[in-house]
């Protein structure tokens, strides 16, 4: 396939999302499945207050990065987010690297949710494992188990193809369900919890703290789905930028709430032994296993919100890259009626369909392989934020973070430093050094990316016309070939 862009003249993305739709997409993307299954581990590794401190630190880091996104999204409210920011400030090749990085992060989490769903369903239906297929990394894969994730992949992909408004309505409904379960956790903690259960407040020292901090990119990825859907949001650009930061603050509150309520429910020794600590905590707070199953329903809601949002975000990124000629035009095709990027959705949906057939071992691999790519994208956005402040001081910025002086530059530099610090934690010898399987998945994604990167012409200057210049250069190249 060539890299000629798909530029339909009679179709465009529909502006049908409102304030609540956009906020539900960003917040729902961040609140996936991690809060259900990982909270017990956080408390065991760092203690109640150590885990809380790590979550607050993570929220601050993501809020600083989110501020750079907020300004750039308000200035360039086009589908693709990072893709457009980097084209404007650093040129086509850097734009591709940033876009490919965040797309890789999104795709790994979409696939993660497809594996997490049957994992959660097994808690509700202990006899789900029927018809053994094969074993991967010590994990036995059963047909019935895998089909739960595969069928869900078909349904969620179908909902997204049928229109972004339908996806937005479904997202809002499921986020409301999450909110109700969160309020129930808080109520249960006040009525049935104990501060004595929350001890020890700190365990593991700095090692425990960093062990929790390193999951931050995975937990908070998703606020940047709001920029991806900017062309489909029917609200002022300034407000789109604000929603990015609001979504990060809400997610921070959610994760802190989960740690505090779970730790108040049971002694730390019981939490460490629990299969799904948050669900067992809910059951303990209310004195019935029924409430544990209610929380699992919340976990399923989290899976669906994150899956839906990140599928939407990844498909818009691939659509934007195809529209710029960076990916084959096939990825830029819009549905003639619903005006959704059908082929991009089918491609990502197909990967999520296959993921459950690789078993539970894929859960950890997917989380670990996607996190470095996510941080690379955040780092590049922070860098381009500084570049555009320097190169284009007069650029129209409906939302200007840090005021009129150098406050914005300070925020940008802080975002760069924090992202470099996060990225370093994944390297060999560091607290979150990745094992070989995630590095293999990471490497495969970037080897595929290099194939497309080197097809992008060099010498195209960054700026407002970079996309048009790239399309013109590709057009000349195709006409000669």
Features:
two-stranded antiparallel sheet; 20 helices; 481 residues; mainly alpha; globular; 2% strand; disordered N terminus
Write the layout of secondary structure elements.
Elements: H1 19-30, H2 34-37, H3 39-46, H4 48-75, H5 82-90, H6 92-124, E1 132-136, E2 139-142, H7 143-161, H8 164-192, H9 205-213, H10 216-220, H11 225-228, H12 237-265, H13 268-273, H14 277-286, H15 289-323, H16 342-354, H17 361-391, H18 407-424, H19 436-453, H20 466-480
Describe this structure in words.
The protein is mainly α. The protein has helices at residues 19-30, 34-37, 39-46, 48-75, 82-90, 92-124, 143-161, 164-192, 205-213, 216-220, 225-228, 237-265, 268-273, 277-286, 289-323, 342-354, 361-391, 407-424, 436-453, 466-480, and strands at residues 132-136, 139-142. Strands 1-2 form a two-stranded antiparallel ribbon. Strand 1 and strand 2 (139-142) form a beta hairpin. The radius of gyration is 22 Å and the shape is globular.
Order of helices and strands: HHHHHHEEHHHHHHHHHHHHHH
Helix- and strand-based class?
A: mainly alpha
Distance between the termini: 13 Å
Q: How can the largest sheet be summarized?
A: 2 strands, antiparallel
Side by side, the strands of the main sheet go: 1-2
Radius of gyration: 22 Å
Strand content: under 5%
Q: Estimate percent helicity.
A: 55-70%
Number of helices: 20
Give a short synopsis of this structure:
This protein is an all-alpha fold. It has 20 helices and 2 strands.
């Amino acid at each position: 396939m060539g890299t000629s862009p798909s530029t339909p003249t009679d179709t465009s993305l529909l502006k049908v999302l409102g304030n609540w739709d956009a906020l539900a997409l960003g917040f729902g993307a961040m609140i996936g499945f991690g809060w259900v299954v990982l909270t017990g581990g956080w408390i065991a590794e760092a203690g109640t207050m150590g885990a809380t401190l790590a979550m607050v630190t993570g929220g601050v880091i993501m809020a600083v990065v989110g501020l750079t996104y907020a300004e750039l999204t308000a200035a360039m409210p086009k589908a693709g987010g990072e893709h457009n920011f980097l084209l404007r400030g650093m040129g086509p090749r850097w734009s591709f690297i940033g876009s490919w990085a965040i797309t890789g992060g999104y795709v790994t989490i979409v696939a993660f949710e497809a594996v997490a769903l049957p994992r959660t369903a097994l808690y509700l239906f202990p006899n789900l494992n029927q018809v053994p297929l094969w074993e991967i990394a010590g994990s036995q894969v059963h047909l019935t188990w895998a089909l739960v994730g595969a069928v869900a992949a078909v349904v969620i992909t179908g909902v997204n193809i049928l229109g972004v408004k339908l996806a937005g309505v479904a997202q809002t409904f499921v986020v409301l369900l999450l909110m109700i379960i969160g309020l129930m956790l808080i109520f249960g903690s006040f009525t049935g919890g104990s501060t004595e259960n929350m001890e020890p407040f700190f365990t593991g020292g700095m090692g425990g703290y960093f062990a929790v901090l390193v999951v931050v990119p995975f937990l908070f990825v998703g606020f940047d789905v709001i920029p991806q859907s900017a062309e489909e949001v029917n609200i002022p650009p300034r407000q789109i930028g604000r929603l990015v930061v609001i979504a990060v603050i809400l997610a921070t509150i959610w994760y802190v709430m989960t740690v505090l309520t779970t730790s108040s429910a049971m002694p730390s020794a019981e939490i460490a032994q629990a299969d799904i600590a948050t669900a067992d905590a809910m059951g303990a707070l209310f004195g019935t296993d029924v409430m544990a199953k209610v929380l699992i329903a919340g976990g399923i809601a989290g899976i669906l919100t994150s899956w839906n949002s990140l599928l939407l975000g990844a498909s818009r990124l691939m659509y934007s890259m195809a529209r710029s000629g960076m990916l084959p035009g096939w990825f830029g095709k819009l549905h003639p009626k619903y005006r959704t990027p059908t082929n991009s959705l089918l491609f990502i949906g197909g990967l999520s369909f296959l993921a459950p057939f690789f078993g539970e071992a894929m859960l950890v691999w997917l989380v670990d392989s996607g996190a470095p790519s996510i941080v690379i994208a955040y780092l590049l956005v922070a860098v381009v934020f500084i570049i555009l402040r320097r190169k284009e001081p007069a650029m129209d910025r409906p939302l200007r973070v840090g005021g009129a002086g150098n406050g914005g530059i300070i925020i940008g530099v802080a975002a760069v430093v924090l992202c470099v610090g996060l990225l370093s934690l994944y390297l060999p010898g560091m607290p979150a050094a990745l094992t070989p399987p995630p590095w293999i998945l990471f490497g495969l994604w970037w080897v595929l990316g290099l194939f497309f990167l080197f097809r992008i012409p060099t010498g195209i200057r960054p700026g407002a016309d970079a996309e048009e210049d790239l399309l013109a250069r590709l057009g000349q190249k195709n006409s000669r070939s």
